[in-house]
Amino acid sequence: MIQLYKRKMPLGGLIRLLMAIALGTASAGERSDAASAAPDETRPSGMHPVPEDVHNEMLSSPKNLARWHMGTRLYTGHWGDDPSPLEWGDSSPDPITNLLEDDVANETPLPAGETDVVIDLGRFYRLDTVRFLNQGVRGSLRIQGANALHPPESRRWSELSRPISIDRDGIIGSRFPVSEARFLRLRFDVVDAGGGIAAFYAAGDARIADAAPVLPPAEQLYQPSDSPLIGFDFATLPAGARITHVSSGDPRQAASLIDDDPESEYRFLLEDGDSIFIIEYMDVFRFEYASMVMDAGRGTMEVYGMRRLPEYLEASTETEVIYLPDAFFTENAPAVRYELERPARHLRLNLNGLDARYMLVRFQGINNPTPSFAVSKFSAVGSIPRGYAQHVVAEVFEFAEPDADPAESGADAPDDPPRLAPASP
After folding, report:
1. Is-contact 225 263, C-beta < 8 A?
2. What pLDDT does residue 270 have?
3. pLDDT tens for residues 43-72?
């Protein structure tokens, strides 16, 4: 049975609790699979409940439109009269398809020289932001838009942003004046191909609440299907996920762990002990791997799966703190444990078909000079039929007829939608 200590926040009670736990765990033996270097001093982890309205507020944040589940298609290189798009689930050896995956830690390697990518968003949007996580690439990026499909070398692409310098690791991107476009052209000019990019993000005024998957009951997801299986991130607000508890930081910002933006982050304080968060899904799903975009030093990362929360966590209120002693982690085996031997910006953990409705994620820092651990996006990916994973986009805009703008490739532009016009009040 998992033991939990439940207390309010008075200082005297907290001191007595710390002494009791220290005495109760002093004689414990070494853990199996423990890190060769001892983690920072063990403390009971105070789990702060996350208010429900936090997730409702986050639904008004921008939606990442550059995802396969949004109906996006991808074109690469140069083509002639009949361009063929790469689509979700296509068996393509081209690693550029990683760009639109739900797995935020899946890198897209970029070769030296120029690489052209054209993204068909499937419909018109008002766009103002492009971002991605860079790891080892040096060069520049041009971002252009159009209302019809043109070859990458065409002059009919409009500049959406000044060229972006890719001169450091971390989040790289641009905010630009709002522009209407269905097609994006990305031209990467790489001078040092020592890595790749991940967590690509393109957004504007479409909100997270404007798009949602049509998910059936969980048992139906895993029935035989003629539809190809797709890696789908269940750790999103549209898919019904929510953060229930965090060990430190501001609980009102906790939904940023599962929003769409790689730049927003949730920052834990290592001085408060282990960094822990608990995520709840809509149902018991089967997970193949978990991915994170993060800012972490050396330490140990663990993921625990549960079909239900213990009663003491379910009964906690928004003003109560639940203290998890170290016994929680010694009595329950993690689905995966990974030793970070050096600082990392992204991480992918194999969950091997874990069935769970709740996940507890813990990071234990090891003698780190940095005072915090931050997560920009957590993803928990499982394989489901493509038809269920496709998001339905709400018709939140009004449209006006576009100007004539045929594709220069010699073929008709594919099903070009009308140009976006402001919605009437």
Report:
1. no
2. 76
3. 556 889 999 898 988 888 899 999 988 889
Nearest to 142 by CA among 157, 113, 162: 162
Q: Residue 81: its pLDDT value, please?
A: 61
173 exposed, middle or buried (CB, 10 Å; 0-12, 13-18, 19+)?
Answer: buried
In whole angstroms, how large is the CA radius of gyration of the chain?
A: 23
Q: Report the CATH number that the domain containing residue 117 is assigned in CATH.
A: 2.60.120.260
Q: Which residue has the higher pLDDT, 403 or 344?
A: 344
CA torsion sign for 375, 275, 368, 291 is: negative
Q: CA–CA separation, 424 vs 399, rounded Å?
A: 10
Q: Which residues are within 8 A (CB) of 50 and not within 5 positions of it... i.e. 6 or more apart?
A: 242, 243, 244, 245, 246, 251, 252, 254, 255
Among residues 39, 52, 112, 128, which one has the least CA distance to residue 362?
Answer: 39
Q: Which of 145, 175, 205 is the last residue of a domain?
A: 205
* Total number of domains constituting the chain: 2
pLDDT of residue 63: 92
